[in-house]
Every structure is written in C-alpha cells, then in structure tokens.
Amino acid sequence: MAEFPYFLAMRYLLFLLLLGTIAFSQFGKVSVTVDDRLLRDTERQKVSSIRDEVNRFFSGRIWDERFQGLKIPLNISIVFQGVAQKGGMETFHAQVLVFDGMDIRYFDKSLQFYYNPGTSIQFDPVIFDPLGSFLSFYAYAVLAGWMDTYDFYGGNHAYDQAREIAFRGMASDYPKGWSTRVQVLKEVTGNKGLREARFAYYVAMDLFDQGKPDNALKEFGLMMEGLELVFGQFPTGRSLYFLNANRKKLVHRLNVLGQNDILSRLSEMDPSHKEDYLLGLRKN
After folding, report:
1. What is the reported pTM?
2. Would the pLDDT of 22 be above 70?
3. Which single residue of 24, 35, 245, 255 could bond 103 by disulfide (Cβ 3.0 to 4.6 Å)?
4. Is residue 3 included in any domain, yes or no?
5. pLDDT of residue 19
6. Are 66 and 19 in contact (CB under 8 A)?
C-alpha cells in the first residue's frame, strides 16, 4: 500500500475550508437512547438526566481545532445492566453502542461509572473520570475515523488521544473494560488496508463528481488494494460496515465507469449483498 498521500486535491480543499469556518462542535445531531429497565425506581431516578447530559457533553465541545464544523451525527444507546457498590459508592454498569449512522460503530459491554445527578459530565485530559473519560474515548475514536477520510491517516492524532485516555483508565480505580478498548484501538489503527481504502473511496467520489473519471478510477483501484489487504489478513466486520454504508453509491459509480471486474470482486467480498453488485454488472 502507498506510504504517502496519493490524490488529496478535493478532500484537502474541503479540509482547508473546514479550517476556515467559525468554531463549531465536531458533532452535529446527537441522539441518545437509554434503556433503564433493569434498574430499580430509585436508581432510575438518579440517572434520569443522563440522556440530556450526554447530549450536552458531545454538543458543546471542540475536540480537535484542526477539524471544526464537521457536524458528525452521533447515535448513542446506553443499556443499563445493574448497580453495584464500589468503595461505598453506587456504581452503574452498562453496555453502550456508539454509531455515526454510517460505518463507524463501537459496541462496548463494560462501562462502569458513578453518577451525580445535577452535575454535568466532565472530561479532563489529565484527571480520569469513569464516565467523562469513557465518552471522550469514543468521541476521539469516532472523530479519528472521520479525519481519516479528509486527510491521509488524518485520524492518527485523535486515535493517540483516545489511547492515552484508555491507558489512564487501565491505571485507575475503574479499570474494567479499558484493556479491551486499547485492543480495539490497536485493531482499528493497525488495519491500514481499511483506513487507506476508506480514504481512497472518498477521494474517488469527489473526483467522479468533479468530472474526472480517470483519476476517480485510479482511486477506486487503490480502494480495492486496501480491501484486498483487509480480506486477506484482518477480520472483515468493519470493512463490511464500510461497504454497507456506501454500497448504493459505490455500485452506481462503478457501473457508470464500466468496472465489471471490481463489481464482481466486491460481490465475493460481500456475499450477503451479492445481488446488489451483480445488478450493477447486468446494467453494463
């Protein structure tokens, strides 16, 4: 795979435009759902404000000065599993799904935190907080995935920020789940094939829309190189998330460009949606 940025023109232009915008939070609409059926009434009342507080936590913060105005949609589902006592403090346990509505998806089974109603959720880059640090970890992880589509490995810094939070979590009084989160980051950042494929896809789409089919085709080729690397060496789950999120547009563009070989190969990589790719073949 390429070691240097290949064709940055349109994505880099958009990146520069983002730098020139008024300071906006990186996250746009934040949808938070809470399932508290396993909690007692008194416990449920104690966390009754968590939906609004989580929304406020993501909506009013700049996570990276370089990428402002992205307006990333964010869906967060919190499912409480119960409550335990830890050091004389009531500690909530929950599973959480974090999803951007496209191909970035994290499911965490091990959130453990205390909650003080009437106070806002805080994040300090130095001082660990079980809930604030957990949410910040995934804020950086999601943001990094988006940064990767605007600049070649543009998410590296945000992934590093998430990793630092995870290391502090491992050394804290609430270490549950943090070693797993470190491993998840290792898998995501080490999957260079998928990271480069995602970047190439967005560059290709921009070039296609600019009326530059030859350049777009080159980027689609690089996208396939990345996907071939993934399907040869890595678990394919996140790659299938990527294909699922972009399949319709991808099939249309490849069909217009007459790329039967790519469509055929994609049908093998994503057999659950084989007919979608083969339909593109039949249209050529």
Report:
1. 0.90
2. no
3. 245
4. no
5. 47
6. yes
